[in-house]
């Protein structure tokens, strides 16, 4: 029932995206055919460097700090997708120390549409709209620690 509420919004956004002509100055954008394939999570960036695993090396990318975090998006040419992302929480403890706890996996399927510069996902509140840049898809969250700033996916 929840997905039905979002369907009119998604259809409106999709129609706005496809109503623009191909020659509207979208140089450097991606065609839908170029987006089809598997995109792997390569970074979960936070606003400041952290050393969650205690190895003496800090990073803004939580994937450098914890190997239980993973994710992927599979875009199909019929404009459907399959999404999977590790559930995790980043919790402050003391003295600018943080701990990551992984707790299963979130999955979603639905439809996607793109204007070559961004991609919109229907059926997942976790994905929403991602920005396309070079060979990456970026989900901007923008949270300060202990939250996530961006999720970055690269084409496999």
Give the topology.
Blueprint: H1 2-19, H2 32-35, E1 37-50, E2 59-61, E3 71-75, E4 80-92, E5 98-114, E6 118-122, E7 129-133, E8 136-140, E9 148-155
Question: In words, what does this structure look like?
Answer:
This protein has 156 residues and is mostly beta strands. The longest helix has 18 residues. About 13% of the residues have low confidence.
Mean pLDDT: 86
Helical coverage, percent range = 10-25%
Q: Give the helix/strand class.
A: mainly beta
Separate helix tally? 2
**What is the β-strand count?**
9
> How far apart are the termini?
34 Å
Largest sheet features: 8 strands, antiparallel, barrel
The general outline is elongated
User: Which ranges are low-confidence, i.e. pLDDT below 50, for 5 or more consecutive residues?
Assistant: 6-26
Main β-sheet, spatial strand arrangement: 1-3-4-5-6-7-8-9
The radius of gyration computed from the alpha-carbon positions, rounded to a whole number of angstroms, is: 17 Å
Query: What fraction of residues sit in β-strands?
Result: over 45%
Order of helices and strands: HHEEEEEEEEE
From the structure provided, what is the oligomeric state, counting identical versus distinct chains?
single chain
């Amino acid at each position: 029932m929840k997905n039905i509420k979002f369907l009119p919004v998604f259809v409106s956004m999709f129609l706005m995206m496809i109503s623009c002509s191909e020659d509207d100055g979208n140089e450097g954008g991606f065609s839908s055919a170029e987006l089809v394939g598997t995109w792997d999570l390569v970074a979960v960036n936070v606003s400041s460097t952290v050393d969650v695993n205690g190895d003496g090396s800090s990073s803004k990318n939580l994937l450098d700090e914890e190997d239980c975090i993973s994710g992927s998006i599979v875009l199909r040419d019929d404009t459907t997708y399959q999404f999977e992302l590790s559930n995790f929480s980043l919790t402050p403890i003391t003295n600018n120390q943080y701990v990551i706890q992984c707790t299963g996996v979130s999955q979603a399927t639905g439809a996607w549409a793109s204007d070559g510069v961004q991609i919109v996902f229907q059926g997942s509140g976790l994905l929403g709209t991602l920005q396309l840049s070079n060979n990456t898809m970026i989900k901007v969250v923008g949270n300060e620690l202990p939250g996530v700033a961006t999720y970055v996916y690269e084409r496999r």
